[in-house]
Amino acid sequence: MNKALFIKLAILAVVTLVLIAVLAQIGGLVRERQERQHEAEQSVEQSQAGPQTLLGPLLTRNCKETWAPYKDGVQTRNFTVALPPSQLQVGGRVTPDPRYRGLFKINSYAGKLSITARWDDFDRLTPPAENAGGRVECGDVVAMFSASDARGLRDVELKRDGHALAVKPGTTNGHYPAGLHAVLATPRTGETLELSLNVNLVGTQRLAVVPAAGSTAVDLQSSWPHPSFAGRFLPAEREVGANGFSARWQVSELATSATADAAAGKADLDTVAVDFIDPVNPYVMSDRAIKYGLMFIVLTFVTVGLTELLTGRRVHPVQYLLVGLALSLFFLLLLSLSEHLPFLTAYLIAAGAAAAVLTQYAAAMLGGWGRGLAFGGGVALLYGALYVLLTLEQTALVIGAVLLFAVLAAVMTLTRKLDWYGMVGDRQAVSE
């Protein structure tokens, strides 16, 4: 092999390693900014309220069973019975209320919810004894309502059959302690009980409702245009537009274990939920873009190398390095701009700046504005392809594969008549 060519390839390999290191440093900066955003989210949650999961109202009662004499005393057990409603309706409107910590935006919200719960049977509130000769005594009936972060309960009004009840902090339930409760008069046999709860609630990023009832209906509206419906159940009906969303869930106790799990005090409960997300997170998008950085550099180097082969124009390794640095710093420019501008705007500015710089530099490097414009146009197409890869996440693999295959096919077509042995000075050795 021609010694000069071998040396140049070795230098280009070193240049590529240097550029990989540059991309790694930029990637590290992206991850650092992501961590700082997470810290900002935690700061808002600590000073305001975190994601909210609502449970209830439930009727609970603390009971004590006493049975058979044992030595000098009797045996006892303390337990709590919980009765979910037969019907639960939750409705209201949630208004986005974003908070900021420096550059970082945290999606918090304020909601006004109306909750109606109905009970038709109260037999479970008077449990039978489980032991022979046992006697069960129970305390007051308590209506409890749990919110995962009670600091978010701004204003609460609880009524029984239209009459206001005195609300106290805490739920008196050790499994779901955060929330509120009210003591009720013991319902009479055959009586129907209805509780209505109006809540002004604030939270961060997620609102979830536990469908702990025989039948649960949840209706939510919001001006947030980018909801992500989560939890165990998707809405039965939903409308999402530029002005917000409306969604309706309908869940039966036949489809969920939430009723039994809530009564048993389990921690992991089924929910219907909505996340208030930003569809384009600049740090996630920048991190994904950097993963394609090496492919960009390799494709650009291949393009420059082909120009050398086809035109005889020599390009110095330092020029390769400068071109690679311009491609790499595009990602840093994108990251910094996207913290202040919408991601698409930041992308267009960063891509336009990089393409403009590379166009004028390639005109001098490759010997003419025609070649420079062609090179800059190719770079612009690469940035366009990258944006498509970023926005169409589900089809990114197939688009990337097609792009690489098209580039390989173009390289093979353009070099199909090149005399490779003649280029490296080995024609005579091969013929012998």
From TrEMBL:
The keyword Transmembrane applies. InterPro entries: Uncharacterised_IM_CreD (IPR010364). It holds the Pfam family CreD. This is Cell envelope integrity protein CreD. It comes from Pelomonas candidula. The chain crosses the membrane at residues 292-311, 318-338, 344-366, 373-390, 396-414. NCBIfam families: PRK11715.1-1 (NF008712). Keywords: Membrane, Transmembrane, Transmembrane helix.
